[in-house]
Amino acid sequence: MGIERQSTAWRGGLRLLGGILAWLLAATAFAQDADTSRQSRDDAWWTGPMLANSAETLPRGHVLIEPYVYDVQTRGNDGFGSRAYVLYGLTDDLTVGAIPIIGYNGLHHGPNSSGIGAGDQILQAQYRLTRFHEGSWFPTIALMLQETVPTGRYKRLARSADGMGGGAWATTLALNAQTYFWMPNGRILRARLNATWTFARHADVDGVSSYGTGPQFHGRAMPGDAFYLGTSVEYSLTRRWVLALDLTYSRSDATHVAGYDDPLGLPATPVRASSGRSEAFGFAPAVEYNFNANVGVLLGVRVIPGGHNVTRSVTPAIAINYVH
Prior knowledge:
Structural class: mainly beta
Number of strands: 19
Number of helices: 1
Order of helices and strands: HEEEEEEEEEEEEEEEEEEE
Distance between the termini: 46 Å
Mean pLDDT: 90
Shape: elongated
CATH topology: Porin
Strand order of the largest sheet: 1-2-3-6-7-8-9-12-13-16-17-19
Radius of gyration: 22 Å
CATH superfamily: monomeric porin ompg
CATH architecture: Beta Barrel
Strand content: over 45%
Largest sheet: 12 strands, antiparallel, barrel
C-alpha cells in the first residue's frame, strides 16, 4: 500500500470516527433532555461491543451463545466466516467454553475455496478476580486463557484459498477489565479493556500452504508472538438501544518459514522467508438492540485502515447474543 493510499484510508477512517463521536454526543444530548434521572444497571440491557471481551463470568449453570457472521473485505479477497462463543458458568467465578470457527474465501482474481471449511478452533477459560460495585472505583478484572487447536486445513492444499488455519498450537493469556460510568444525564457508559499476549508453536509445512509456500516445499513455519490491546465504550441510549465503539492496537512479530523445495529430478533448494513485523490500529462502531435482558443483536463494522505490513480491511458483522 502506497503512502498516498494509506493517507486516504486514514483520512476516511478519521472522518467516520468523527461522525460516530458526533452521533454519540447528539444522542447523549437527546437523552439528557429526555431523562435526567440516574439510570439503574438493571435498566441497561447489553449484547456487548463487537470486539472487546467481557471481564464478567456467567453465574454457575448459566450459558451464553453468541454466533457472529462476518466478511473480511480486503483488496482482491472476501473472507466470509462465522465464529460462535459457546460459554458455560462452571462456578460463579469461572466460565469455560469453546469458539468454533468456519470460513470460506472468495478471491476476486483466482479460484475460490472449494467449500466451507473449519478454521482453527479455540478453547477458553476465564476466572474473575474482582467484581465492580457501584460507588467503588475498582473495576471487574478477570484472567482469560485460550488455547488455539490447529484443526483448520493449512498444508497440501489443492488451491491456496482452501487454507483456513495456521497448523500451530497457540496459547493466549489475557487480562480483561470492565467498569461503569454515569454520564451527566444519568445514562450509563460501560467501558472495557483487554490486553492479550499470544505465543505460538511451530507448524510442519508441506506443499501449498497458508504460509504461501509452493507445491514442492517441505519445512516448517514459526508464527511470531502477538500482542493485542483493545478498549471499548457502550452508551445505553435507551433500555433496548446501545451505541458501541471499539478501538484496537495489534502487533505481531515476524513469521519465519524455513525448509527446502524438492522438485522431482532436481537438487533440493533451501528456502527461507520472513513476513516481517506487523502493527496496526483499528476501530469498530456498532449498534446493539436488545429484545430483553437475555437476547440481543449487534450490527457493526471493524475497520483497519492499514498499517505496517498490514493490508487495509473492512469487516461488516452481525451477531446474536443469548444468555440463559
